[in-house]
Amino acid sequence: MTLSSVTVVRLSNLPMSGLSYKDSGVDLDVYNEAMKRLPSLMHRTFSPRVRPLDGGFAGLFQLDFDNRLFRRNYEDPMLVACTDGVGTKLKLAQMTGRSDTVGIDLVAMCVNDAICCGAEPLFFLDYVAMSHDDPVVLEQIVRGISDGCLQSDCALLGGETAIMPDLYQPGDYDLAGFCVGVVERKHLIDGKTIAADDVVIGVASSGIHSNGFSLVRKIVLEAAGKQLSDSFDDRQTFEDVLLEPTVIYAKAIRQVLNHYKVKCVVHGIAHVTGGGLAENIERILPAGMQVEVDAASWERPPIFQWLQENGNVATDEMFRVFNMGIGLALIVSPYYADVIRRLLDRNGLKNWLIGSVTAGTKSVKVINQ
């Protein structure tokens, strides 16, 4: 066969009008429909610190603002940046067709990290990767992100939606989030002031939050053979319990920190994610300080006992993989602990005194597991 005849054969397989982007799996008309649903979900999170830039390639945010309500009068501000995802919890959202809560998880995983430095979250950006355009699913996802930003008092400043049919199977999507906050240098919380006799306040989680879902799915769907629509208890199905969004602690922590603008009473904050209480608290400890946490001092959501029993999971493994009911740990001066706990109560956050700090080798020990 000659070269010219090969060329004719190949061209005969193409549409008469040539290939289009739609032929490769990306429909720009559907994409445009999806994009039209998003601006209102962004605008509901804006404050006057967001500067309009219609048609721009980036978002603008004014750090300070000449208005009594928004003025911060920064002296030595430091920017705080965080990024994270939701992990395999997304598989459950995709299996159930419920994509309206994982956006809250996405914001929470980033914002809850930022507040550990004492930062005020300023703005958030998202990245959504999908196999094909689905305006309904995308709107659900971004509505959750918008809800999470409202809970955090931060602006959803922008984002990116990538359609990649060659990388994702139909119905699959992935999320990433990016948060930027600010803190005055003199108010930075970095754990260096943690001292002997400090106490640990544990703030309740809403359940599993967004860590350990590869193990969760293996236990629920394989080991226990459950359907996500099966009843977990008299009030909730498994999908209700497992898709419960991560608590966002930003507003409560800002109230605590604003209550003590002069005194440094909060010495460390740990967001309890992968690695559990021990590993995440140890991350913020200075040398020469050790913490003992009493696991009998707080209430654990029932899902953790169910997972342990149905998966035959060792207790040490449970405490290493899951938050076990504590989503945030505050290490504070003991004199102010009661007031801080009352402030958390007023924000609807259950909390307990769960541990104490002593001098010793840098470590965290969890007793009474």
Q: How would you describe this protein?
A:
By secondary structure, the chain is an alpha+beta fold. The protein folds into two domains: 20-187, 60s Ribosomal Protein L30, Chain: A (2-Layer Sandwich), CATH 3.30.1330; 199-367, Phosphoribosyl-aminoimidazole Synthetase, Chain A, domain 2. Helix content is 33%, strand content 23%. It contains 13 helices and twelve strands. The strands form three sheets. The protein has a six-stranded mixed beta sheet with strand order 8-10-7-11-9-12. A four-stranded mixed beta sheet has the order 3-6-4-5. The protein has a two-stranded antiparallel ribbon with strand order 1-2. A hairpin with an 8-residue loop joins strand 1 and strand 2. Helix 10 packs across helix 12 (315-321). It is globular and about 75 Å long. The protein starts with a helix and ends with a strand.
Number of strands: 12
Secondary-structure element string: HHHEEEHHEHEEEHHHEHEHHEHEE
CATH class wording of the largest domain = Alpha Beta
Integer average pLDDT: 91
Oligomeric status: single chain
Largest sheet: 6 strands, mixed
Radius of gyration using CA atoms only? 24 Å
Distance between the termini: 76 Å
Short synopsis of the structure:
The protein has 369 residues and is an alpha+beta fold. It has helices spanning 3-12, 28-36, 39-43, 89-96, 102-114, 135-152, 213-223, 238-242, 250-259, 276-282, 302-311, 315-321, 337-346, and strands spanning 50-51, 60-61, 77-85, 120-130, 155-163, 173-184, 199-204, 266-271, 289-294, 326-332, 351-359, 363-367.
